[in-house]
Amino acid sequence: MVDMVRPVVTTRVGVSPVYEGLEKTAQAMHLARIAMASIAPGDPQLCVFDDAPVPALIASAPTTSYRVMNNVLGPLLNTAAEERDLLLETLETYFTAGSMSEAAKRLFCHRNTVRHRLSRIEQLTGRSVDDPLGAVELYIAIQTMLRLPKPPD
């Protein structure tokens, strides 16, 4: 069913895991709503709850996710807009690409430029993409920025 519906989706659609028994419907609806909330605002796609665990965690606890994002990226978010945007774009592209070389290709720059920008992110946040825990914290923070609407002021 998911494969049939996915090509015609025009808005965000969340799908729960398969379940048996009518009594589990409320929980399935809850999980489907989390799956839908885990899709970036304005991005028309279908998300199956079990296929996106990190976005599901972020969407299921938005207040906590914003707090984590601010704690992890705080000093970076407080830099001048031009530098902030460049560093955030580099971090997002690095995680999407999976390597400095591929990120450099996508960003149309030299891989040493990507390395320098990632070093700057480490200076500002105290977290390195080379450290597993630091990488996870940076990834969750950047995913929070991408997936949740801006928090109310």
The shape, in one word, is elongated
Largest sheet: 2 strands, parallel
The count of strands amounts to 2
Which CATH C-level class of the largest domain is it? Answer: Mainly Alpha
Bin the strand percentage: under 5%
Mean pLDDT: 93
Total tally of structural domains:
2
Number of helices: 8
* Share of residues in helices: 55-70%
What name goes with the CATH superfamily of the largest domain? Answer: PucR C-terminal helix-turn-helix domain
Distance between the termini: 40 Å
Low-confidence stretches: none
Which fold name fills CATH's third level, the topology of the largest domain? Arc Repressor Mutant, subunit A
CATH architecture of the largest domain: Orthogonal Bundle
Report on this structure.
The chain is mostly helical and 153 residues long. The protein folds into 2 domains: 2-60, no CATH class; 62-147, Arc Repressor Mutant, subunit A. 63% of the residues lie in helices and 4% in strands. It is built from 8 helices and 2 strands, in the order αβαβαααααα. The protein has a two-stranded parallel ribbon. Strand 1, helix 2 (25-37) and strand 2 form a beta-alpha-beta unit. Helix 3 packs across helix 8 (132-147). The chain starts with a helix and ends in a 6-residue tail after the last helix. The model has no long low-confidence stretch (mean pLDDT 93).
